[in-house]
Amino acid sequence: MTTIETFVRVLDLGGTFVFAISGALLAVNRRLDLFGILVLSFVAGNFGGIVRDVLIGAVPPAALSDGRYLLVSVLAGLITFFLYSGVDRLRSPVALFDAAGLSFFAVAGAQKAIEFGLSPVMAALLGMLTGIGGGITRDILVAEVPQVLRSDLYAVAALAGAGIVVSGDQLGLPYGISALAGGLLCFGLRFMAIRYGWHLPVAHLSAQGRAGVEGRKDGGDN
Amino acid sequence: MTTIETFVRVLDLGGTFVFAISGALLAVNRRLDLFGILVLSFVAGNFGGIVRDVLIGAVPPAALSDGRYLLVSVLAGLITFFLYSGVDRLRSPVALFDAAGLSFFAVAGAQKAIEFGLSPVMAALLGMLTGIGGGITRDILVAEVPQVLRSDLYAVAALAGAGIVVSGDQLGLPYGISALAGGLLCFGLRFMAIRYGWHLPVAHLSAQGRAGVEGRKDGGDN
Amino acid sequence: MTTIETFVRVLDLGGTFVFAISGALLAVNRRLDLFGILVLSFVAGNFGGIVRDVLIGAVPPAALSDGRYLLVSVLAGLITFFLYSGVDRLRSPVALFDAAGLSFFAVAGAQKAIEFGLSPVMAALLGMLTGIGGGITRDILVAEVPQVLRSDLYAVAALAGAGIVVSGDQLGLPYGISALAGGLLCFGLRFMAIRYGWHLPVAHLSAQGRAGVEGRKDGGDN
């Protein structure tokens, strides 16, 4: 195993752990039972990577062929289950863990896509998808509109981090440096967006548009 | 690239564009931000094709290996974002764009499934799934019951269009003709269903059945 | 085709039928039309197996390359559609059919994962995922939190059944015996959980935790 492969694996496992924590916290908040918590931990922690691996043809996905992903997910779920009352005193713990997991996954996802020969633009996009896939699935499983579609600069932060990794690869920089820079940029953007309420613009809705929305919600299926 | 491949690609890009518009319109209606709009555009425009490609083993999917799908999706999202107040004056724009995208995808999906050696019945079914996959994912992402499961003749229209393409292939007709016929049939069926309220029958629910529904909704999880 | 392969196929088709029934019943309860019923039948009956096949690289999935899965799903949907008022008199029919489908799929999914060379732990996990994948997708499609995340011992029962099959394979027992034992254990656990309200523990939520939940629900996407 080369140094790069080891580094990607460590990033992947780290991202799995923090995403699994975010899944477990959400599961506890929604009053799911212990196994529901473990399932949501595994899904939140691994679904982004599983989707990435299926899309680039790396089957069976690393999350299934390497037992450590399961171990790390179950560990995160159990820690959250037994120490929840301690964990939930942290301010916005879900959002912070989520930002860290997003950074890990965006960087590692972009690198793996590069290794499988995808073009730079698509590798950056796949890094972003790796980062947001677990969180999207986590939110869908509790029947909520995924945070990524509403949150300030969420996907943009993942795309920026993945973009740094891809750019570094194109420029021939050592992977460790571009991965660190990309991860910090992603986490920093997300943190600032949460802290200062940075957000992207929302489209202008005319009065008719709003009426249409409500009409569609109430009545129709067309 | 042969003529058939070019035609399939054009259908795919056209379907991507109109589905992406439908995703962007829904995202604007649900007050998602700019990136949420672009994400929903990409998902609505490409998820049907991505699911099809993963299922037939064509990985990485065309939507990831060919940058034009991304470009077309982003373009559709930006147009909707900046020109929404103009677009929303059209009557039922979501439904019309949706019907056009459905027709494009059902035809192109069936053809690609034939090329990958699936049986005629399965190719028609996969054409239907290609057509409805993007819309289903779009609706799930905003936490709604997918339109396809409620709408009048939605999946039937896609299946009919895909069936024409498969039948034409079995009869040795030129692809262009059967694709055009299948697409028009699908769009026509969908349009008439919207216009005249054509719909499929709903199962008879006894009083006990309705009580059971409400009981399940309120209380239980079994 | 060897005896084992035949047995796996029979289990798969049986599981498809009972899961499709559960999908059709839910679709009728949610007032979907005939095609919505058939779509939900197919999804509930086949999505677990399709996800399993995509993950282990067996594409196109058996549910698409073998027409009998489609036939069985459509049959289940039509039976439910025409005989619903009879079927719904059975006590908790959705839960019972669901338990039977879960047992079939957990056993067959674990066996197929073993055949594709996955490790014992992952084969058991994949058996569980095969069992719960169809039901999760079925519930997501009607915009509900999946039953598996709330239900008493649901995933645990599937994991136990799959675990028996994997253990039997490791010990060199005939597949028929371990499959029967695993299936009965899974069904028995699920049945007892429904009958006697067996359930897994839920994490302790402090007062602050509950406040946080409500705050997140009402307001923000922090």
From TrEMBL, chains A, B, C:
Membrane topology: Multi-pass membrane protein
Positions of transmembrane segments: 6-27, 34-55, 67-87, 116-136, 148-167, 173-193
Locations listed in the record: Cell membrane
Keyword Nucleotide-binding: no
Record keywords, A-Z: Cell membrane, Membrane, Transmembrane, Transmembrane helix
Domain Glycine transporter stretches: 10-84, 96-166
Family per record: Belongs to the UPF0126 family.
PANTHER family on file: INNER MEMBRANE PROTEIN, UPF0126 INNER MEMBRANE PROTEIN YADS-RELATED
Protein name per its UniProtKB record: Trimeric intracellular cation channel family protein
UniProt source species: Serpens gallinarum
Phylogenetic lineage: Bacteria, Pseudomonadati, Pseudomonadota, Gammaproteobacteria, Pseudomonadales
